[in-house]
């Protein structure tokens, strides 16, 4: 331990800088833990967990465990079945009935994180995402101590009714303890999460997401008031959502033309339509890479991307896929009259 740690501790106390004071206290505790004085380290941690020195407010500038997430105004297209669940979450929080912990599970790109942002926007709450890089520590036992400190900061938030905490991909610290390769360390971490959730202020909304629900610790699953399955997309939902995403992108790329009928035909050719996150990236890329002097160049690029083909398109195959002569003209650049002649031949 360096002299500056003690000096900073005194300085932050005098300035009533609670975040700085706690950071220094935790750093001192880590020092004693590192030299083998576990009792003293745990004593300091216990003192900090039982002391509300200044009742701090969480902000992205004074916490090492959180960062504030800005949410935009873009719409979030979801299937009706998931949308109904989201409306239910908003209503449950509004009723102030202590229903405040929600787990979003599903494959990457299904809209879990974006849904959390939308809920925060609707409820006009600040959204803070947990920074797992600052929590996970290779040193034995330190991760669980950091988790305890994390929940201590959450408990000390002075306006819990204005807060949503997002544990994005919470499986980073809560994989099934029974099947974990490091049972002891994962057990400590998961137990710390369980304890923290049990003591959570019911006015604070906690949303967690996971891509690995099957490997999720069942004891932790039971701590959530509701588990929302984000894998419930039908093929028709994805085509409709793709249309909504494209409409939104076209409003930003003014040079690109709108032909939803052709777009839906191309998307329908996909054996597996990707989830919204991946689909949005695909559409954004084909539009961004398209020739601004050709308003439908992005559709040709989309077709090539979907079918993994080069620019040499087979006119007869395009016809068999259900495209009209005008649509074939758009995709190939060959005039309708020439397309008609070649198809007849």
Task: Give an account of the 3D structure.
GO terms for molecular function: ATP binding; ATP hydrolysis activity. Helix 2 (18-34) packs antiparallel against helix 3 (38-49), helix 6 (142-155) runs parallel beside helix 7 and helix 9 runs parallel beside helix 11 (276-288). This protein folds into three domains: 1-46, no CATH class; 64-227, 3-Layer(aba) Sandwich (Rossmann fold); 233-341, no CATH class. Helix 6 links the parallel strand 3 and strand 4 (163-167). Helices cover 51% and strands 8% of the residues. With 345 residues, it is α/β, with parallel strands linked by helices. It has helices at 3-15, 18-34, 38-49, 80-94, 112-123, 142-155, 183-198, 218-221, 235-250, 260-268, 276-288, 297-307, 315-320, 325-332, 336-344; strands spanning 66-69, 101-105, 126-130, 163-167, 205-210, 226-229.
Supply the key terms:
elongated; ATPase_AAA_core; 15 helices; AAA family ATPase; Rossmann fold; alpha/beta; six-stranded mixed beta sheet; 3 domains
The N- and C-terminal alpha carbons lie at a distance of: 86 Å
The H/E string reads HHHEHEHEHEHEHEHHHHHHH
Alpha carbon gyration radius: 26 Å
Indicate the low-confidence ranges by residue numbers. 51-56, 176-181
- Secondary structure: number of strands: 6
CATH architecture of the largest domain: 3-Layer(aba) Sandwich
* Mean pLDDT score: 83
SSE order and pairing:
Elements: H1 3-15, H2 18-34, H3 38-49, E1 66-69, H4 80-94, E2 101-105, H5 112-123, E3 126-130, H6 142-155, E4 163-167, H7 183-198, E5 205-210, H8 218-221, E6 226-229, H9 235-250, H10 260-268, H11 276-288, H12 297-307, H13 315-320, H14 325-332, H15 336-344
Parallel strand pairs: 2-5, 2-6, 3-4, 4-5
Antiparallel strand pairs: 1-3
Helix pairs in contact: 1-2, 2-3, 4-5, 6-7, 9-10, 9-11, 10-12, 11-12, 14-15
């Amino acid at each position: 331990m360096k002299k500056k740690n003690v000096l900073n501790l005194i300085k932050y106390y005098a300035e009533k800088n609670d975040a700085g004071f706690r950071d220094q206290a935790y750093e001192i505790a880590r020092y004693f833990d590192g030299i083998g004085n576990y009792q003293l380290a745990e004593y300091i941690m216990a003192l900090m967990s039982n002391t509300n020195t200044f009742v701090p407010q969480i902000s992205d500038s004074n916490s090492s465990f959180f960062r504030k997430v800005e949410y935009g105004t873009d719409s979030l297209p979801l299937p009706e079945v998931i949308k109904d669940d989201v409306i239910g979450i908003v209503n449950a929080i509004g009723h102030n009935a202590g229903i405040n912990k929600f787990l979003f599970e599903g494959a990457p790109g299904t809209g879990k994180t974006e849904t959390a942002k939308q809920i925060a926007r609707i409820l006009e709450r600040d959204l803070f995402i947990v920074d797992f890089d600052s929590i996970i520590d290779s040193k034995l036992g330190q991760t669980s101590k950091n988790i305890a400190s994390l929940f201590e900061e959450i408990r000390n938030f002075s306006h819990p009714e204005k807060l949503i905490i997002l544990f994005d991909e919470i499986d980073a610290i809560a994989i099934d303890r029974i099947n974990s390769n490091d049972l002891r360390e994962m057990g400590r971490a998961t137990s710390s999460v369980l304890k923290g959730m049990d003591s959570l202020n019911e006015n604070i909304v906690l949303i967690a997401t996971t891509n690995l629900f099957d490997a999720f610790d069942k004891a932790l699953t039971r701590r959530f008031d509701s588990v929302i399955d984000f894998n419930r997309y039908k093929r028709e939902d994805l085509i409709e959502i793709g249309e909504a995403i494209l409409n939104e992108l076209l409003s930003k790329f003014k040079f690109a033309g709108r032909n939803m009928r052709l777009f839906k035909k191309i998307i329908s050719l996909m054996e597996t339509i990707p989830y919204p996150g991946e689909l949005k990236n695909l559409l954004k890329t084909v539009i961004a890479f398209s020739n601004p002097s050709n308003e439908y160049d992005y559709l040709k690029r989309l077709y090539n991307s979907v079918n993994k083909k080069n620019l040499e398109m087979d006119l007869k195959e395009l016809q068999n896929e259900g495209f009209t002569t005008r649509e074939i003209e758009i995709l190939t650049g060959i005039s309708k009259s020439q397309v008609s002649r070649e198809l007849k031949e």
